[in-house]
UniProtKB/TrEMBL annotation:
<dbReference type="Pfam" id="PF07714">
    <property type="entry name" value="PK_Tyr_Ser-Thr"/>
</dbReference>
<dbReference type="GO" id="GO:0106310">
    <property type="term" value="F:protein serine kinase activity"/>
</dbReference>
<protein>
    <recommendedName>
        <fullName>Receptor-like serine/threonine-protein kinase</fullName>
        <ecNumber>2.7.11.1</ecNumber>
    </recommendedName>
</protein>
<keyword id="KW-0547">Nucleotide-binding</keyword>
<keyword id="KW-0677">Repeat</keyword>
<keyword id="KW-0418">Kinase</keyword>
<dbReference type="InterPro" id="IPR017441">
    <property type="entry name" value="Protein_kinase_ATP_BS"/>
</dbReference>
<keyword id="KW-1133">Transmembrane helix</keyword>
<keyword id="KW-0723">Serine/threonine-protein kinase</keyword>
<dbReference type="Pfam" id="PF08276">
    <property type="entry name" value="PAN_2"/>
</dbReference>
<dbReference type="Pfam" id="PF00954">
    <property type="entry name" value="S_locus_glycop"/>
</dbReference>
<dbReference type="InterPro" id="IPR001245">
    <property type="entry name" value="Ser-Thr/Tyr_kinase_cat_dom"/>
</dbReference>
<dbReference type="Pfam" id="PF01453">
    <property type="entry name" value="B_lectin"/>
</dbReference>
<dbReference type="GO" id="GO:0004674">
    <property type="term" value="F:protein serine/threonine kinase activity"/>
</dbReference>
<keyword id="KW-0808">Transferase</keyword>
<keyword id="KW-0067">ATP-binding</keyword>
<keyword id="KW-0325">Glycoprotein</keyword>
C-alpha cells in the first residue's frame, strides 16, 4: 500500500516539476508549455520548441534525443514564434482541430494546426519511437500523422511519392538555411508521368534525378544495392500494381542497423546519414548528386556524360553537338542533334550500354511487355526515339519508350541498356568504324611496303645507271584498294557523270557519290594527264591525311587505285566550299553567312591550321590554304581540305619562325607570302600569311586577287580608323556593337598575319588566343602592299606547272 502511494506520489511530483515531461502522449485535456517536450516511449525522439535564426525564432519540431541538432520534422515552418514562452501545444485546444500550436501572447491565436477533415474527433497526440507524431480519435484511429507531411527529412517508414486516391503529394522541401527551417528553394518529389523517378527541383527547374526505379534500385544510383545489408528499399506502384493506389518509395532499417536519416539539404543535395554511436555523431553515408554528371542536363539533349572522360560530355553515337563552338568552349547545355534525320521506315537501334536511363517524363511504360515487343512498338511509332527494359530483375521485363529528346543520360557502374533509334546510315557508319581502323592500319602498312619498294627501285636504278619508270610500277604495286573497290565508287558516282561533278581544279575533278550503305561521299578523281604529279599528290595526301584527325580537317574515308585511276574518298560536305558563299554574286547567299558563322569559320580554320602546325604527330605546312579549300559541313563547321601539296616539316621543337626551307614554289596567287613566292622560302609563316588573307576575305567578302589588292585596301581603312567599313555590306547592318568590336579585332589579327617579314607574323597558337582576346594584340605595321598577284599581274588560280616554269 505504502509502496503504491509512494509510486503515485513520485509520479505526480515528476509530472508537476519536470520540464521535459517523460510523456509520449498529449491528451485533449492537457497542454504543453513552450519549455516542455513530448518524449517517444523509448526516448529516441522528442517533440517541442526549438530556436533557430540566431535564437530569434521558435519552431515546433521533432528531433533525435541523442542529437538535438538533427531536427527531422517542423510544424510551423512558415509562422515561427518570437519567444519560447509564448507557445502552447494542445490537442484541439477548443480552437481549430487536431494538434494545435497557439500563441499565448496573442490571445491563443492558432499558429499552426494539423487540421484535417476528422480534426474535431481528435482525442490525443502521440510521439512514436519511429519519429512519427500521430493524432488519434476516440476509437484510437490515426486521423493525422507527421509522416504524411514530411519536411526536409526522410526517415525509415516515411513515403515519398503520390497518393493516387487523394492526390496527396509526399515530398520533401529543404530548409531556407542551416539555421532557418522555413521552406527553401529545393524540393524532392516523385515524378509519376513516366517510369516513376525522384527529382530534385529548384525554382521550377530540375537539378537532379535518381533515374527510374528498375525493380531493384534507382537507375542512377547503382550503389543502392550495396546498402542492402543495412536498409530495405520498397517501391510501390512501378510494376503496374495499380491496386496499391499510390506510387511511393520508402526505406526501412534492417534489424540491428544504426539509426539513419536522409536529408534534402540547403544546397539541394540528398544526404544519407547514419548515426555512429561510438563517435556520437552522424556520418555521411551517401549523397547525391555525386558528381558533375549528376547535374541535370549536364550534356544537354542526346548528350551522354562520362565522369572519367576528360571532356566529360559527349554525344550519343549518331549525334553531333548542336553548336560545336559552344561545346568547344565547354558549354554543353545546348546538347546534340542527329547527324541524319530519322526516316521512320528504315531506322534501327544503337545499343548504348551501362547508362542511367534518360529522363522518363512523358515516356510510355508497360510493365507487361517484353523487350522484343518493346523494340517492335518503338519501330512502328515514328515518334519513338529510344526504348529500354523497365525491370532488370531476372531476365528483364517491361518496356519504356521515349518519344522526344533524351535528357540527362550518363554512364554509371552497372548501368542499364538503352536502345537509341538511329537512321540506317548512321548505324552503318558505326559498324564501319571498327573496319575503318583496320583499313587504316592496312593502308599504313601498305605505304611502308611502298616506300621500301621505292627505296629498292631507286637503289636498283642507281646500280644499273638506267632510267626506271618508278611511278608506273609502284602504281601497280598498290593497285588493290581494300576499302572501296573501283566498281563501287563508279556506281556511287553514276559512272563519274557530269551531274555528279561538284568541283574541279588543277588536280582533277570532284564527284558527289552515295555508297551502297547510303553514306554520302565526295570522290576526288585525280587527272590522268598529269600522272606523275598526280601520283605524288595522291600518295602525299593519303599518307598525310589518313593520319590526321581533327574536327576542322576534312576526313579521308578511304582511297582506291584502279589502273591509272586514283581516287580519294572523303566525307561529303553538304555546304560545299567557303568561296561559294563569301564571293557569291547573290547578296542573299552572302548574307546567309552571318557574323557569328563567319567568326566560327575563322576560328575553325585557325584551329585546323594549329593542329597541322603543332598538334598532329607530324608538323605540316598546308601551303594552299584558300577559300576554295575550306569546306563547310551541314552545320557550317569549317574543314580544311586539299592536302595535295602539303609538306611535312620537322621542326624538332625549335621555334617555328626559324625553320625555313627552300622549296619548289607551288600554291595559289593572292595567298602566297612574298618570301615564298619570290624566293621559295617556305615556313609555317606561309600558312599564317594565307590565313591572314583568308580572314580578311571572310570579313570583307572581297578576293585578294588581280587588281583588287585587299591587303592594301584594309591597311588604308585601318590607318583611317574606318575598320568596320571593310565588313561585308550584306551583313554589316545586322552586327551588334560587340560584333563590330570583334570584327575590328579580326582585322587587326589579319593585318598582323600579312606582315611583310615572316618574323612579325604571329604563330597560329597566338592567332587563336588573339582572336579570343586572351592575348594582347600587337600594333600591325605596314603589311605586304604589293601582293604577288599584282606583281605578276596575274589573276585567278596559278597552276603548279605555271609556277614551276618560272
Ligand atoms: C517553464 O515555463 C514555465 C512557465 O512558462 C515556468 O514556470 C517554468 O519555470 C519553466 N521551466 C523551466 C525548467 O524553465
Ligand atoms: C546572433 O546574436 C548575437 C547576440 O544576440 C549577435 O552578437 C550576433 O551578431 C548574431 N549573429 C548573427 C549572425 O546575426
Ligand atoms: C474541439 O473543438 C471544438 C470546437 O472547435 C469543440 O466543439 C470540441 O468539443 C473540441 N473537442 C475537444 C476534444 O476538445
Ligand atoms: C549538403 O551536402 C553536401 C554533401 O554532403 C555538402 O557538401 C554541402 O556542404 C551540404 N550543404 C549544406 C548547406 O550543408
Ligand atoms: C550555353 O549555351 C546555351 C545554348 O546552347 C546558351 O543559351 C547559353 O547562354 C550558353 N551559356 C554560356 C555561359 O555561354
Ligand atoms: C508524332 O508527334 C507529332 C507531333 O508531336 C504528332 O502530331 C503525331 O501525331 C505523332 N505521331 C504518332 C504516330 O504518335
Amino acid at each position: 500500500m505504502d509502496q503504491l502511494f509512494l509510486t503515485l506520489l513520485s509520479t505526480s511530483i515528476l509530472l508537476l516539476t519536470s520540464s521535459a515531461a517523460a510523456e509520449s502522449t498529449l491528451t485533449a485535456s492537457a497542454t504543453l508549455g513552450g519549455n516542455q517536450t513530448l518524449v517517444s516511449p523509448g526516448d529516441i525522439f522528442r517533440l517541442g520548441l526549438f530556436p533557430a535564426v540566431n535564437r530569434t525564432r521558435w519552431f515546433l519540431g521533432i528531433w533525435f534525443t541523442v542529437s538535438p541538432d538533427a531536427v527531422v520534422w517542423v510544424a510551423n515552418r512558415d509562422r515561427p514564434l518570437l519567444t519560447q514562452s509564448a507557445a502552447v501545444i494542445a490537442v484541439n485546444g477548443s480552437r481549430g482541430g487536431g494538434l494545435v500550436l497557439l500563441d499565448a501572447t496573442a490571445s491563443n491565436a492558432v499558429v499552426w494546426s494539423s487540421s484535417s477533415a476528422a480534426a474535431t474527433a481528435a482525442q490525443q497526440a502521440q510521439l512514436l519511437d519511429t519519429g512519427n507524431l500521430v493524432v488519434r480519435d476516440k476509437e484510437g484511429n490515426v486521423v493525422w500523422q507527421s509522416f504524411e507531411h514530411p519536411t526536409n527529412t526522410f526517415l525509415p517508414g516515411i513515403r515519398v511519392g503520390k497518393d493516387l486516391r487523394t492526390g496527396a503529394d509526399w515530398s520533401l522541401s529543404s530548409w531556407r538555411a542551416a539555421d532557418d527551417p522555413s521552406p527553401g528553394d529545393y524540393r524532392y518529389v516523385m515524378d509519376t508521368s513516366g517510369a516513376p523517378e525522384l527529382h530534385v527541383w529548384s525554382r521550377g527547374r530540375r537539378t537532379y534525378r535518381t533515374g527510374p526505379w528498375n525493380g531493384v534500385r534507382f537507375s542512377g544510383i547503382p550503389e543502392m544495392t550495396t546498402f542492402e545489408d543495412m536498409f530495405e528499399f520498397q517501391f510501390t506502384g512501378a510494376d503496374g500494381a495499380s491496386g496499391a493506389g499510390e506510387v511511393s518509395y520508402q526505406f526501412r532499417n534492417r534489424d540491428g542497423s544504426p539509426m539513419s536519416r536522409v536529408l534534402l539539404n540547403e544546397s539541394g543535395v540528398m544526404q544519407r546519414m547514419v548515426w555512429d554511436r561510438s563517435a556520437a555523431s552522424w556520418s555521411n553515408f551517401w549523397s547525391g548528386p555525386r558528381d558533375q554528371c549528376d547535374t541535370y542536363g549536364r550534356c544537354g539533349a542526346f548528350g551522354v556524360c562520362n565522369v572519367v572522360d576528360a571532356t566529360v560530355c559527349g554525344c550519343i553515337r549518331g549525334f553531333a553537338p548542336k553548336s560545336p563552338e559552344e561545346w568547344y568552349m565547354r558549354n554543353t547545355s545546348g546538347g546534340c542533334g542527329r547527324k541524319t534525320p530519322l526516316q521512320c521506315g528504315g531506322d534501327g537501334f544503337y545499343l548504348l550500354r551501362g547508362v542511367k536511363l534518360p529522363e522518363t517524363h512523358g515516356c510510355a511504360v508497360d510493365a507487361g511487355a517484353t523487350l522484343e515487343e518493346c523494340r517492335r512498338r518503338c519501330l512502328s511509332d515514328c515518334n519513338c526515339t529510344a526504348y529500354s527494359g523497365a525491370d532488370i530483375r531476372g531476365a528483364g521485363s517491361g518496356c519504356i519508350q521515349w518519344f522526344g529528346e533524351l535528357m540527362d543520360t550518363r554512364f554509371v557502374d552497372g548501368g542499364q541498356d538503352l536502345y537509341v533509334r538511329l537512321a540506317e546510315s548512321d548505324l552503318d557508319a558505326i559498324k564501319n568504324t571498327k573496319k575503318f581502323v583496320v583499313v587504316i592500319a592496312l593502308v599504313i602498312t601498305g605505304f611502308v611496303l611502298l616506300l621500301l619498294s621505292l627505296g629498292f627501285l631507286i637503289w636498283m636504278k642507281a646500280r644499273r645507271g638506267k632510267k626506271v619508270r618508278v611511278l608506273d610500277e609502284t602504281g601497280d604495286f598498290i593497285a588493290e584498294c581494300p576499302t572501296y573497290p573501283f566498281e563501287i565508287i563508279r556506281a556511287a558516282t553514276n559512272g563519274f557523270s557530269e551531274g555528279n561533278k561538284i568541283g574541279e581544279g588543277g588536280f582533277g575533278f570532284v564527284y558527289k557519290g552515295r555508297l551502297p550503305d547510303g553514306q554520302e561521299v565526295a570522290v576526288k578523281k585525280l587527272s590522268k594527264e598529269n600522272t606523275v604529279q598526280g601520283l605524288k599528290e595522291f600518295k602525299n595526301e593519303v599518307d598525310l591525311i589518313a593520319k590526321l584527325q581533327h574536327r576542322n580537317l576534312v576526313r579521308l574515308l578511304g582511297f582506291c587505285i584502279h589502273c591509272t585511276e586514283r581516287l580519294l574518298v572523303y566525307e561529303y560536305m553538304s555546304n560545299k566550299s567557303l568561296d561559294t558563299f563569301i564571293f557569291n554574286k547573290n547578296e542573299g547567299r552572302r548574307a546567309t553567312l552571318g557574323w557569328k558563322t563567319r567568326m566560327n569559320i575563322i576560328l575553325g580554320v585557325a584551329r585546323g591550321l594549329l593542329y597541322l602546325h603543332e598538334d598532329s604527330r607530324h608538323t605540316i605546312i598546308h601551303r594552299d590554304l584558300k577559300a576554295a579549300n575550306v569546306l563547310l559541313d551541314g552545320d557550317m563547321v569549317a574543314k580544311i581540305s586539299d592536302f595535295g601539296i602539303a609538306r611535312r616539316f620537322s621542326s624538332s621543337g625549335a621555334d617555328q619562325k626559324d625553320c625555313t626551307i627552300t622549296d619548289r614554289v607551288v600554291g595559289t596567287l593572292g595567298y602566297m607570302s612574298p618570301e615564298y613566292a619570290m624566293d621559295g622560302k617556305l615556313s609555317f609563316m606561309q600558312d599564317v600569311y594565307s590565313f591572314g588573307v583568308l580572314l580578311l576575305e571572310i570579313i570583307s567578302g572581297k578576293r585578294n586577287q588581280g587588281t583588287s589588292n585587299l591587303i592594301a585596301h584594309t591597311w588604308r581603312l585601318w590607318e583611317e580608323g574606318r575598320n568596320t567599313d571593310l565588313l561585308e555590306p550584306a551583313i554589316r547592318g545586322e552586327c551588334t556593337g560587340g560584333e563590330l568590336e570583334q570584327a575590328t579585332t579580326c582585322i587587326q589579327v589579319g593585318l598582323l598575319c600579312v606582315q611583310e617579314s615572316p618574323d612579325q607574323r604571329p604563330p597560329m597558337a597566338d592567332v587563336i588566343h588573339m582572336l579570343s582576346r586572351e592575348k594582347a594584340l600587337g600594333q600591325p605595321r605596314r603589311p605586304v602592299m604589293s601582293t604577288v598577284a599584282t606583281t605578276y599581274g596575274h589573276s585567278g588560280r596559278l597552276t603548279i606547272t605555271d609556277l614551276e616554269a618560272r
